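Task: complex structure prediction.
Instruction: return structure tokens for all chains below.
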Amino acid sequence: MSARPDAGHIAYLAVNGAIITFLLAPIAIITVFALNPTPYISFPPVGISLRWFEKFFSSPEFMGALWLSLQVAVVVLVLSMVIGGLCALALARGNIPGSRVLTAFFMSPLMLPAILTGLALFQLYLLLDIGRPVWGLIMGHTLVAVPYVLRTTLAVLHNFDRRIEEAAAVHGASPARVFFEVTLPLIRPGVFAGGIFAFIVSFDQFPISLFLVMPQGETLPVVLFNYMKFDLDGAIAAASMVSILMAVSVVVILEKVIGLKSYVKL
Amino acid sequence: MTTIKPDRRSILKAGAAGAALAALGAPHIANAQAATLKITTWGGKWGEIMKGDLLPAFEREFKCTVSADQAFPFLPKLQASPRGNPIYDVLHANSNEQWKAVEFGIVEPKVDPKNVPNLKDVYPYAINDKIAGVSIFTSGIGLGYRTDKGLGKPTSWKDLADPKLAGQRGGYLIPVNSLGQAHLMMLGQIYGSGMQDLDAAYKALEALKPIKLFDFTGQMEKALLSAEVTMGVIHDSGVYRYEGTPEPVDFALPSEGVLALEQVLTVTPGSKVKELAYAYIDYMLRPDVQKKLAEAVWYSPSNTKVQLDAKYDAKLFNTPEKVARLIQPDWKWYNARKDAIDLRVTRILRG
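Output:
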């Protein structure tokens, strides 16, 4: 006898289907727009063409912006992992007075509207007369990326069994050796999970970049925004597809290199 | 008191550190020899011509470097920068933003013809009281429409209110788009006592509902191309650029007049390279530069001496008679009421 699905189960499936559709619909629309040869969104599509990808990849402006965004995101990833990881260790282990206040302080960039952070940094750089250097942009991105690493690393440290470190020390390992061979491998899932967020936050960062990019040194989201004001064609969709694939590639590569399955526990 | 006696090792260390610092500082010194002009400029086809051709030629002629910022928003960035060391020397913006900049005191309200000789050849509208700085080009804001929907060519702004266009007409989010703001003033002119008759304008705006609203003119352009919109408020260059393509779109100049969408240049009071800034404005007004940009992006040149090729000559505002059809909104007046207008139109269009 086959079991008839009850109404609750059907509703559950329907709600999940609706959520998945809601999440994926923009990607589907972008895909249609990117592959459609017309310079506007038309449905049904009139054909399949790679002309917008060709335009995107042959444009020195888009390519320069893509390359810069990637470089900045990689540096932000590394900086965020180092700063966020060390901050988390200090806050969780350092017996620092007011560690809760400090944690809130380090998390505060996420509370502020990013556009205000961008404007404040822009003014600061101008007051210091340092202009808008790339490292200034990296600092801005790092500021909003560190809280992600901090939060995920603190989550790992919260469940950390310190007796493992003590056992290593009892067996003669130096503090440095304990850190590199015991502590670091155990907090790595948190640090890398936060690092992935940091990469994506930087790669897609718009409000902060808007103020901090220098002329002829614009990141991809800023170039796309400005392009859209004058030419709203499929090149925007092609660029979006490339961005999405880039973010997915980073996750896939990290999964292959480091293994992300353990991070799911976070 | 401790006396430090330098030994050989410390001298070598200091020398190495000095050399490293000198190497790091070298690019600054090299760049310091050539003045840098910081400007804002548009993207798209305009940006391609500027960066690919016109700016390098300017740099060669004036032996300088031009740093051209294409990343919006220009005005907040200029506002946030120190008055004595502004982030831009020349601000390129539309007229509404230029007037805001004048009010903030971050750009000079006028350009002296002594500093910009080509000003003597521009149409009066480019430097009149409605303009802060100098308008180097203008577009005409009128009605873009599809030619394949069985509509006749619109002749009046009132044609946008045709009931047949319900849900098929296009306008702008007025708080963020100057074409929408100019159109609102025009509604006051058409349906009321003048461009400052806001009550008549609000009533006419209400009557345009249902209307599709867009942030940017680029979106309106695509909405016309995709037939999402059958008729919409747009600048002539946004439609003329499809001339010679199979796209069934055209531009109509309403009989009541065409709104001017000016491309305006101003100089910042704190600029350290004012001579260069004026030279740049003069350069942008040269007939050859004007012709190149006008024909690339379908903008009407301000210089009366520009000789356009026939197809551009037929459509752009380049004679005293054609220029007389341009209506320039009073942006100073509008900006002073903008907050109240934004609230009101948002309520109208949301409801």
